[in-house]
Amino acid sequence: MTTASRKRLTETLEAWMYLAPATIILTTFWFLPVIVSFAMSFGNITALQPIDEMKFVGLQQYGDALGNSGFRQTLWNTVNYVIYSVPATLILALLAALLLNTQIKGRGFFRTAFFLPYITTWVAISIVFKYLFHREYGLGNWLLAIISNDLFGLETTWRLEWLSESAGIWELIFRGSVPALPLGFDNIIAGPSLSLFSIVLTAIWRDIGYFMVIFLAGLQNIDKSLYEAASIDGAGPIEQFKSITFPLLSPVTFFLLIISMIGAFKVFVPMFMMTPMGGPDNTTTSLVMYLYEEGFTGEWKLSYAAAVAYILTIIILLLTLVQNLLFGRKVEYGQ
Amino acid sequence: MLRQRYLIAAIATLLLLGVALISACTQGNAEPGKTADGRIVVEFWHAMGKSQGEELMDIIDQFNHSQDTYRVEGIYQGNYNSLSQKLIASLYAKRNPAASQAYPGWSTRFYRYDFLTPVQDFIDNDPEFAKVLPDYWPVMIAENSMKNLKTGQSEIVTLPFNKSVYVLYVNQTLMEELGWDEPPHTWDEFMQLAEEMTVLPEGADKPERYGFATRPYIEDFTVQLMSAGSQLMNEETSEALLTSPLSIEAMEFLRDLVGGTNEGGARVGYVETAYLNSVFGSERIGMYIGSTASFTYNDRAVGNKFIWRAYEIPSRNESTEGHTLMQGTNIAIYNNQPEEVQQGAWEFLKFLTSPEITAQWAQATGYMPVRQSALDVPLLSEHLERDISFANAIATLPHATFEPRVLYWESVRSNVSRTVESILQSSDLDIKKALIDLEEEIKSIQASAE
């Protein structure tokens, strides 16, 4: 063996040794479960059933899931959660970042204040918000009463059932004036149930801080000279935002859009904590919560839950690809 | 130098991993534990918290002091859901306890996949015990018996522990004020009392007090069905009985109870997903149906505001023999533990269900005593003289029945609950059609499970 090749061998070995700890952990807790659960999704196994009783059933679990009204309902809940939480969070976070990127007084304090919810655990947040949304003693109804009674002089006695109202938010707002549409369209028009919407509000409140910090980093990367040049050319703040800030922030926005959508599709804890029974009429059960209930409680349908997990993976994968196709090319990298 | 340092770091990491691996492996092979004084340790997992947990620990202490061969260690697992998840995980890992609480649905799974030692095996070797077997409530023994798949014979698999039954909770003070000296016995009387209890202040759009409220789940429908003398499913034939006339009638009655109006045009009842004891305590409702597990919660919610009582659930009419629903966990013994440990678990189980102990347990917690002779134990008999509600509840045991024990029960459960919820939430939904659809769903669940 030449010195060169021996050196190469040692280097390779060395590299493997550095990689070994991560590889072992990832294989045990990541690759193996991914492979095993994928295989399981084509069988029909439940908990404690001996593995030799498992029959290959092809795509039956996938078909069962897609045909199951409970699955479709939770998929619809999850889609609603994504639609109502992701864009709102992004827009509000961007606004917060724009404000805190100026020379505003106490911005250090505000930055911290906005970021604090994100580092608080979901469990603690859920418990606090459950109180805020309490029908009798919650801050939510108290505020509404103040607004309607003291500000507008109305004598309202109703109270919102924040976390146990199954009617859609638009249905509640435009009560009676929403046309009944066939083919489940009225479901779309009715909007997410108030319970789900309450959870969406909680999620927005929590996530703004994190998105804001990333937007801030993006904003500070934009060359100040561009703004100077623009203002010399007579561009106002709106024009500057449209022509400089927004395009140059697009990589950050795109990144946030993708990760927040993926995160929102995987939502579990707030639903599980705030509405452990799945909310009124199951309107707050997310897809992952459904997976958990099917796979790890009750009948322990492991194969079915695995299939649900892979359907979720496929949905996220497809949507990410679509986003890439739609927005990927419009993203401006570099100046 | 630098490379050497990297190498040392890499070797250290590998060593650490190795140590972790070895310690993980050796733990798995640990010998069944014994205490310092040589007693055999019997691990018992349960989900009894708060005062119930304290009572159970007290009973375990009594057992540990009553003999010196075994030491039972009661381990609290937080709640039933955690208990079931930890049990299944531990059974996979062969790190399970000797015995645990188990709902009939769980034991069906454990038994089917051969993780249990049926208590029948111990009974067969214990002639003394076989003599006292008839003292257990027949409904409880029936619920704890399953068909052995190999022999085709029915055998006792588990023994009952904390059982509750469904009863009608009534605001007694209010009922007497309205001139009723007897609780309602039939559906008609039930409806009438609910109407009389409802109060709608002038000008208000919602009643100040409703006669009745229900939760929208399977049990709330099942108890009505049972009060009509029917049931959800024939366990033997796995045939769902949801579209029978009785079933439709029971569902209609429940919807009328929450959706009907009284003479003054006030709505008599409403649907609520939360537990009902707090609205009962705040006098927002006059009656509700719930399990006897609510006794202590009722006491807390009602306080001194009024007297409440529990009664047998009214039957469909005078000629129907209604049943009530019994629920709760049993105790299972796992077959992968050393024989002596299992024997210890069996001794504990006998102790736990002995007349004196089950009387103590019932008196302290409000759960049903599992033995008939427990009613003669002074501690309980004196208590029953004072606690009419509890005595009423125990009196329903001879005609109590239980939920079907099939592996796919949870799916049935959630489908039935969903349908019940939608029927109760909308007054114009066609009940018959909804129940026909539900029966179809159940058939497809059965088909995919078999």
Largest interface: A-B, 24 and 31 residues
What oligomeric state is this?
heterodimer
Radius of gyration of chain B: 26 Å
Percentage of residues assigned to helices of chain A: 55-70%
Average pLDDT rating of chain A: 90
Largest sheet: number of strands, sense, barrel closure of chain B:
10 strands, mixed
Poorly predicted regions of chain B:
none
Q: What characteristic shape of chain A results from the CA principal axes?
A: globular
N- to C-terminal distance of chain A: 51 Å
Give the overall pLDDT of chain B as a whole number: 91
Strand element count of chain A: 0
Helix content of chain B: 40-55%
Describe this structure in words.
The complex is a heterodimer of chains A (335) and B (450). Chain A is mainly alpha-helical. Chain A folds into 2 domains: 1-30; 41-330, Orthogonal Bundle (MetI-like fold). Chain A has helices spanning 3-40, 60-67, 69-100, 107-119, 122-132, 139-151, 169-173, 185-190, 194-220, 224-232, 237-265, 269-274, 287-296, 302-327. Chain B is α/β, with parallel strands linked by helices. Chain B has helices spanning 2-28, 50-66, 80-93, 104-112, 119-124, 127-132, 138-144, 172-177, 187-197, 218-227, 245-259, 277-281, 295-302, 339-352, 355-365, 378-386, 388-395, 409-425, 431-449; strands at 40-46, 70-76, 99-102, 145-147, 154-156, 159-171, 210-214, 233-234, 239-240, 269-271, 285-291, 308-311, 324-333, 400-402. In chain B, the strands form 3 sheets. In chain B, strands 1, 2, 3, 6, 7, 10, 11, 12, 13 and 14 form a 10-stranded mixed beta sheet that branches. A two-stranded antiparallel sheet of chain B has the order 4-5. In chain B, strand 1 (40-46), helix 2 and strand 2 form a beta-alpha-beta unit. Chain B starts with a helix and ends with a helix. At the A-B interface, helix 1 of A face helix 1, helix 3 and helix 18 of B.
